[in-house]
Amino acid sequence: MKHGNPASSILQKELYLSYMPIPEKYIADFEEDEIYHVYNRTNNKEKLFITDENRIFFLKRYKEIIAPFADTYCWNLLPNHFHFLIKIKSEQLIIEYLQSKPKEALTATERKFLVRVANLPKVGNPGNFQKVGNPGNFQKVGNPGNNEITLCELIEQTFKRFFQSYALAFNKQHHRQGNLFYKPFKRIKIENDAQFTMALIYIHANAAKHGLVKDFTTYVWSSWHSIISNQPTLLLRDEVIKWFGSLERCVKSHKELAAGYYNCEVAIED
Length: 270
Fold this sequence. Notes:
CATH topology of the largest domain: Alpha-Beta Plaits
Order of helices and strands: HEHEEHHHEHHHHH
Number of domains: 2
Shape: globular
Radius of gyration: 19 Å
CATH class of the largest domain: Alpha Beta
Strand content: 5-15%
CATH superfamily of the largest domain: Transposase IS200-like
Strand order of the largest sheet: 2-3-1-4
CATH architecture of the largest domain: 2-Layer Sandwich
Distance between the termini: 26 Å
Structural class: alpha+beta
């Protein structure tokens, strides 16, 4: 596990924990190359999606806003909440993506992140950032300045921008006002192989858990159909299938283990 998070991130987390009855593990820090179960629901369990157009727009904005920063293993859209299993891209890939964008297209958060990158001490070949603390933990010596943010803060703010983008469009279309999403959104770091397997199956079978369908494979709004198809996809489909050994074993494992994973530790959604 990586350490050395900046004081600003620690303070924000402490504020969350002091005001919200949420265990710390449900607002994990984002780190490069790590896997997370990200999920959230609406305030007061209102409808998150009213029409299929809403669902399509939600996925479209996810692809546009989140996909440049994280790869996706699976997802599921339920009436009042959603689930994603993602892997944060390497900091170097994220830097290259941001540097490829026109400056005028960068958000304020992205500009602050690049300010931090520009101020990082460099050693060896160009592009190799100095590592502080545990291997893989890129950071500036000392705390970031007011105009700088860490990778964790960048990812968190990017998700918030995604939620805000969808909520604004949803509220306008359905003549609604106020916050749509519960705050803070939850993210659990996947720590081991068993937890990864649980998350994959739990997310794909979530519609059956909530009684929306008897057979989760019949539910339309999940990534299950992309996993078992040969159609082009942005999902890490090959990695998911390889994880189970084959497509046949992937399907069999999902069907055999789904009911047992409804009560696993990654199942908390309240």
